[in-house]
Specification:
The structure is a homodimer of 704-residue chains. Chain A is built from 25 helices and ten strands. Chain A is mainly alpha-helical.
Chain lengths: 704, 704
């Protein structure tokens, strides 16, 4: 809005700053991603090495105590951070970011302390052996970094304050956070293109091609940063971290050749994967509802819940491998077998030399290593059917009950783990019928689960491609994703959409619901409409601001300023507060726009960061000032978007959503009536609100 | 609009049909892509084999005559098709598709005969040795197939006619064509994900996430079809076609390790590539303007121009290798050296045994093979500096003068060729300073040229990734693309945008121009406004339709139907024509909506395909009917999108563009005036139009 007053220098500043911020977001997120990786690998590595060394000395109870103790300590740390410091940091974070980018303003989601808890909570959670991932937290972390940079640090840090005024609006802030989300995925999976696509497909609600370029730049920075650190660590300077390149699960050595029966197997895999995926969503939803009852009772109960899940996970990981028998190592093998170290494909558990325990190879390692083992090709016989079945059931169950406890927890890794074990299970089962490597089946299984839960297509495809570096599988992966998404869409919505809805965030869907076509805009306008006249009494404004929670008010010009009452525009609550604080009041009811304009600069009305706005209570209006008048014209947006009251609600909803509006004025069709019918806001367009007013359109309503 | 009248069965039909069409588009485009490939490889292969065999018998003049003669025959065939059958098929086709998806209705672009010419013209052109590619034509072909399927064949083919009525609207048709464009890229480069991203980044103007999924499905089908055919051809059943897998230029064997000096080299490469790229655009623009003068003089001159360019190309390809000396084959080589066949890295030209001619290895082969040779890794010394320089200059020049002649010609391959030779040139030059393989330099050079001309980022990145299967290069490729795009953006616009502008297509940019912020909506409304009253005289309508070319007219309700003149809505020219054809006229001026509604079905007003609409001349209105009245209310859209006249033009332009409108009504702010100020259309928002009205805002205007 204030663009037209900007000079060329200011525009240049703006552009430079925009790119600098994108660069900083990339650097910051890359750094955090690397730090996260490093910390997790080292903590989890030492934990596993210690457990292993105790087991080698046959002190099994000590080993379990050490293992479970480490896990529990980490779990308590993570849970305490979440419960006491920043409850908003629990969970994945992707639903919150998605809702924010849809226009839901909930500042605490992206506050600095959330960032802090998210980073450390995620490290503790992942290192603590939970079946959680770090990609959701990384997305949230990236978004927090972007938000923090966009508002120039948290009040204290005033270095670039003056320049940053350009970013005090919804659009620029959203753009930055989109970059942050993309950077998060790029850092978590080392998948720069996948990150861009994730931001495009799942996170962002509005997309411009300029944004594509900016997110691309950010993720490129992340990739360069990560690569630099990985190169640095190859010398062994980073403790237990230091293997693995830019590609996390490289399976490029396998050359897939497939025939028609394989294709049928793959289709079946996709169908079943879709069913399991939607079942996963259903169960996660149920578990979340249960947990929310427990979590509401206070932080102590939250921590107790986390400890319980941690104990259960430790028991599963340590106890279940005892059920499996020792298997002799395959003869012709390049890798060491059995391995006693932190990671490796063939784990010595309790086995004699040259034997390994296949269930331990999956359970007693980090999640990343378990995925790597499942994806490994050329080892068709490594895991037994019963092993895979046990692991699949355990991980599927643990994944479901772990999401929702008070630690930062990503959903990608649990889903990939469950999907990969399921795929490998199917692959081993079909071993004799199919030419496909079981490692490839594991990848396809992971794809089918991801498609079934997340319901993304292109981004998952590219992320999997970047994770595994296996371009030749692309057609099969695409096929599986399409099938599993289609199947799962028959049952319920994607897991992130479900969580958004569960959290009660007013998320605007891109398409209008069918029943909206049978309603018109004026049907859903709610509440008593509060309007101001062009020159309004101060007391009146204060009273209205106190008793309502609306953020926008229509301004009506009345005689003597115009011949008949006529719509002047829309004024925002935040602008009114700034105006009142300025105290440019007049005794008479006159227009004194020029005077007010001199008093304020455009920046005074910029959108404040979280918690920085003027509060109603801070205003110190004297009694005599209450009877004075103030001219609202200078701060009124005189050309708000309007629709005629008879416009189909579907059309109005699409207008609202496409333009990213916060208020949409509904004007009357005929002239004899007052010049405004009402205001549509985000809440008026929510299905719950509309179906509450018109229950006859509810598709799930029971017929009387 | 007529959704609300649809039953559940109809919606089911619609959904099934939508996916069936996407499937058919994928199948069709995949088939055409494979056929194109097959034909080109066979025609060009036999041509080269024949030339080679003559040369082996030392009949050099015969060989040249055969080579140039073949090329010329193919060139004449392609040019004749373009000049006489479908002039719209000349050129790349991507700009036209882009404009169509932006909302520019130009039916001839996607007509069946364009499709026919595009397919065969492209085969002849590419096989005829021109420096042209097939990806632009493939995109156009895919879009034509989509358009054709969407309107159910060309009038004759009425099989699915009834079902297809659902697709007679702008949105569904655009969606189908977007799928077609994605399928085209997928088929041309065997790059399914790249195709989706191309459609997203370059082709489409409006994007919904549902579309992402649909294009993804389409390109998956293309990938499966192509893979099936390639498997089929591996047995040698397809003549000279049959090598190569799904990845066209596989360089996966090279493992890049790079250090800081390499990074500097890469940055330099990007900067120079960006400059060359924008220079390419500038020169193409100049050449196109020159050619358009020649091409306007009739088809004969078009063909002459094509023949001239063909001769020049033949001379270059056959003549320049004579300048190069024979080089002894490297000792430790797996490939045969020299090769006498159709393709191969080391071409025997006139050389003694165990020697090869490096310039002939690039010139006397198909464009695809030349790229493969340039990208090949582990052969640092294969091409001499002078060879690469000669090839680069020749290809850069030929590429520029070839685009714009009357054959279907893609821009990707020429740009990749020039970029790859430039990159390899730099790589060979820096050979001693850098650890990077020269083949990787060639890829980076191609990326820098693509970034510099096309100005896409993510899609080029993914296309290159899918072309070369080299994930480890990703950070470097991203870096080069960003740099070259940034550099090139300082000079001019992307090549497709330039061509769109050159062709005078009214393309709406996504962002508003800065000067639009200083104007309001009513400033640019043009022309005398023609309105109808709610019940209008037939003669009046006919007269207005004859004298104006507007497509939409505001309808005003006047007394006695309303108290004061008031805006009723907007009526479309095409709907008026249908109404007039129906001849439901009344003697008196009364409203008889119900009567008219009974007479017409919603489908009668569906948007007709190309050339199928009712023409004004076809109406047979009698003299006495001219004095009768017709009620416009049933066909009036009573809730068109409106803006207040004082709304900033920038805001109005964004509204127009985001919602994909064709008409935007401008209503007055005050009530005393007539109820409508004007209509904004696409043409009113063109910079040329606005700057014509307000030259003071023109940034390029000379100060007086």
């Amino acid at each position: 809005q204030d663009w037209r007053s900007r000079t060329k220098v200011e525009i240049f500043q703006y552009v430079v700053l925009k790119w600098t911020l994108a660069l900083l977001i990339g650097l910051g997120t890359g750094l955090v991603g690397f730090f996260n990786n490093l910390a997790v690998e080292n903590i989890a590595g030492f934990k596993l090495l210690f457990t292993n060394s105790l087991m080698l000395r046959e002190k099994y109870y000590h080993a379990f105590a050490a293992y479970a103790g480490c896990n529990m300590a980490l779990a308590i740390a993570a849970a305490a951070l979440c419960a006491y410091v920043a409850p908003a940091a629990a969970g994945s974070g992707i639903p919150e970011v998605k809702a924010y980018l849809n226009g839901v303003d909930a500042p605490s989601i992206l506050a600095p302390k959330t960032l802090f808890v998210k980073i450390f909570g995620s490290i503790f959670g992942v290192a603590g052996g939970f079946v959680v991932g770090k990609e959701g937290p990384m997305v949230h972390t990236g978004s927090c970094i972007a938000f923090l940079l966009g508002q120039g640090g948290s009040r204290k840090y005033r270095l670039t304050w003056k320049w940053l005024r350009y970013f005090k609006n919804d659009r620029d802030r959203r753009d930055l956070i989109t970059c942050g989300a993309a950077a998060g995925v790029a850092a978590a999976f080392r998948a720069p293109v996948g990150g861009v696509l994730f931001a495009l497909e799942e996170a962002a609600s509005w997309w411009r091609s300029a944004l594509l370029w900016r997110t691309f730049f950010t993720t490129a920075v992340v990739a360069v940063v990560l690569r630099g650190f990985i190169d640095f660590c190859h010398g062994g300077k980073c403790g237990l971290f230091g293997e693995g390149g830019l590609i996390m699960f490289d399976v490029n050595s396998a050359k897939p050749t497939y025939s028609t029966p394989d294709l049928l197997a793959v289709i079946l895999l996709g169908v079943i994967g879709g069913i399991f995926g939607s079942l996963y969503n259903y169960l996660v939803d149920k578990v979340l509802r249960t947990y929310s009852i427990i979590n509401e009772r206070g932080p102590i109960l939250k921590i107790v819940l986390v400890v319980a899940i941690s104990l259960l996970t430790s028991c599963c990981s340590y106890g279940l491998p005892w059920l499996s028998q020792c298997i002799p190592c395959p003869a012709d093998l390049g890798d060491p077998c059995p391995t006693v170290g932190r990671s490796g494909n063939y784990k010595n558990f309790l086995c004699p030399p040259n034997h390994y325990n296949d269930l331990a190879s999956l359970f007693l390692t980090t999640n990343d290593d378990a995925i790597r083992n499942l994806f490994s090709s050329g080892s068709d016989k490594e895991f037994q059917l019963t092993t895979l079945l046990t692991f699949f059931v355990a991980i599927y169950g643990l994944g479901i009950i772990t999401y929702g406890i008070a630690i930062p927890s990503g959903l990608f890794i649990p889903v990939i783990l469950a999907g990969a074990s399921y795929g490998r299970l199917v692959g081993t089962f079909l071993g004799s019928f199919s030419y496909l490597d079981t490692g490839l089946f594991a990848i396809l299984g992971a794809a089918s689960f991801l498609g079934g839960t997340m319901r993304m297509t292109v981004s998952i495809c590219v992320i999997l491609l970047e994770l595994t570096n296996d371009l030749l599988m692309l057609p099969l992966v695409m096929l599986v994703l399409l099938i599993s998404k289609t199947v799962a869409d028959c049952f319920n919505k994607g897991v992130y959409d479900q969580i958004v809805k569960l959290k009660g965030l007013p998320y605007l869907e891109a398409h209008a619901e069918p029943y909206m076509r049978n309603l018109v805009a004026s049907d859903v306008v709610s509440g008593p409409l509060v309007t101001f006249s062009g020159v309004e009494k101060v007391g009146n404004i204060l009273r209205v601001l106190k008793i309502t929670k609306h953020n926008g008010f229509p301004v009506i010009d009345e005689p003597p300023f115009s011949a008949a009452p006529q719509l002047c525009g829309l004024v925002l609550r935040s602008h009114l507060l700034v105006l009142l604080k300025g105290k440019k009041f007049t005794k008479q009811r006159v227009r004194d726009a020029s005077d007010i304009m001199r008093r304020f600069k455009a920046n005074d009305f910029a959108k404040p960061g979280s918690g920085k706005g003027i509060q109603l209570g801070n205003l110190d209006i004297k009694e005599e000032e209450m009877e004075m008048y103030v001219d609202l014209h200078p701060i009124t947006n005189t050309s708000p978007h309007t629709v005629v009251e008879t416009m189909s609600l579907a059309k109005a909803a699409i207008l609202f959503r496409e333009l990213g509006l916060r208020h949409l004025l509904v004007v009357p069709k005929t002239l004899e009536r007052p010049p405004i019918v009402g205001i549509l806001t985000r809440h008026d367009l929510m299905p719950e609100h509309i179906l509450g007013l018109y229950p006859q359109f509810d598709p799930h309503r029971k017929k009387p």
